[in-house]
Structures are given as structure tokens and as C-alpha cells.
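User: Show me an example of a complex going from sequences to C-alpha cells.

Assistant: Sure. Here are the input components:
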Amino acid sequence: GENVEQHPSTLSVQEGDSAVIKCTYSDSASNYFPWYKQELGKGPQLIIDIRSNVGEKKDQRIAVTLNKTAKHFSLHITETQPEDSAVYFCAAPREATFGRGTSLIVHP
Amino acid sequence: ETGVTQTPRHLVMGMTNKKSLKCEQHLGHNAMYWYKQSAKKPLELMFVYNFKEQTENNSVPSRFSPECPNSSHLFLHLHTLQPEDSALYLCASSPRASGGNTGELFFGEGSRLTVL
């Protein structure tokens, strides 16, 4: 089945810094790459996604980049704020499976 | 509010009890999912239903029994659980779950289960 590897497991940054989380996948047929954010006490929510026909997508302070040759996609958060602190998951939708998650901590 | 409602939010049960978790979605989706979230295995897929038919059973022990009476409702029946089954159980829905990508998953807030 689809294998999704996510790194790092924990990321600690100062407010205003950038944060990058990376996922690698195994299924060459994958063509949709989402990122989810899970805040404490809530279920995960989609924050950004990208399809395989583009290499990058931005939405204000967050962006996702895709490298289909290397089979990895990354989440970029710029100008981090304390409210960005949460657990972030990448997913492999072909089998509804998720990476192990990255706990992002943004220090004021 | 994501349109996916789970009840109860918290449940404490003994190993000999029988209880059920309920999930309801108001999004008109055709696919519904159960995930188990624990410290050891975050977001572990358990079951997938597509148009009320089970399409995925991810080697889940038989003490977990899913039921999907229609596309809007999903249940997880629990019996003779073990303490290691304590976890957050998340329900999700999506427009579809076959023939390719699931698309965006919409999650409920989860049911926190503690097995004593």
C-alpha cells in the first residue's frame, strides 16, 4: 500500500521564522497532495493541497511544493505566529493514509 | 463546524462493556471513514465505507464492528475492548473513496475513549 514518510516529528521555531515540513510518498500514481492541521481537541482540517499538474501553490503565509520526480512534497509556513502551533499531517489520499505528523511549536 | 458530528465526545468503559460511537455527516458525501489516533500510531485508518459498502478493513480486530446504515451515518460498535484500545476515534467523510483520490477529508472532533 501507499507509504508516507513525514519529517520532522517535532519542529520548534521562534515567532516570525519560517517552518518547513516534508513528506515522501511511494505511489507514483498519486496526483493529489494535501496538508492537514490539527489543533488541540479538534479533528484535522485541510489547510492547503496541490495537484500533480503544478509544482507550487500558495495561500497567504502557507505554501506547498511538489517534486514528482523525487516523490516528495513540502509544507512551507512563513512569518510563523503562535496560533500556527499545532500538529500538521500530510496525506496520501489514494489510500486515505496519513504521515505520522509534525508537532509545530511557535515560541512568542 | 465541519459538518461531521461525533457522539459521544468522551467515553469511559470497562473491558466487558458494549458501547457504540456515532458519526453523522451533513455534507452529502458518499464515503465515510473511521480512524484511530493514539500516541503510537497517529491517524491509523480502520474502516472505509463508500456508498454504504465497506471497501476497506485495515486488519482491525473483530472487537471493533462498524456499521453504515446509510451514507450519512456511521457507527463503531465496541465490545470486550482492551486498555490499549484507549485512543481518540475520528470519523471523516469525503465526496467519494473509489477509483482514485479521496479528495478532501472532513473530520469530526473525535470521541475520546478510555478503556479501564
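The lines above are the inputs; the final block is the predicted structure for all two components together. The longest strand of chain B covers residues 18-25.
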